[in-house]
Write a structure and sequence with these properties.
Layout: E1 2-6, E2 9-12, E3 17-24, E4 33-38, E5 45-50, E6 56-58, E7 66-71, E8 76-81, E9 90-96, E10 108-109, E11 113-118
Parallel strand pairs: 2-11
Antiparallel strand pairs: 1-3, 3-8, 4-5, 4-9, 5-6, 7-8, 9-10, 9-11
Length: 119
């Protein structure tokens, strides 16, 4: 199983970024997929998830600003991030195969992509 995240970068507060995660190695159609993030000096935290039947879950801190989606035909996960804040600065990890939703013990993790939001 491989998860390749991309789309991170430097953006000003109030701006937008779209993260992508290409999954390979097995079929992900029947698995929930999601995003975690880890800010400098902090623990990893759940950001968002989308189930196999397209139910979505968000952390309170990103609700209304971030949108998670998936394209099963392309085995790709997305995270549209709008109205970004400096506190969104973190390494964002693509994950899959949760033990429970939302946010429970993903079995597979990607390598992470850095998002930096300047004030």
């Amino acid at each position: 199983v491989q998860l390749q995240a991309s789309g991170g970068g430097l953006v000003q507060a109030g701006g937008s970024l779209r993260l992508s995660c290409a999954a390979s190695g097995r079929t992900f159609r029947n698995a929930a997929m999601g995003w975690f993030r880890q800010a400098p000096g902090k623990e990893r935290e759940f950001v968002a998830a989308v189930s196999s039947v397209l139910s979505t879950y968000y952390a309170d801190s990103v609700k209304g600003r971030f949108t998670i989606s998936r394209d099963n035909a392309k085995n790709t996960l997305y995270l549209q991030m709008n109205s970004l804040k400096p506190e969104d600065t973190a390494v964002y990890y693509c994950v899959t195969h949760f033990s429970y939703l939302p946010g429970g013990n993903p079995a597979y993790w990607g390598q992470g992509t850095l998002v930096t939001v300047s004030s």
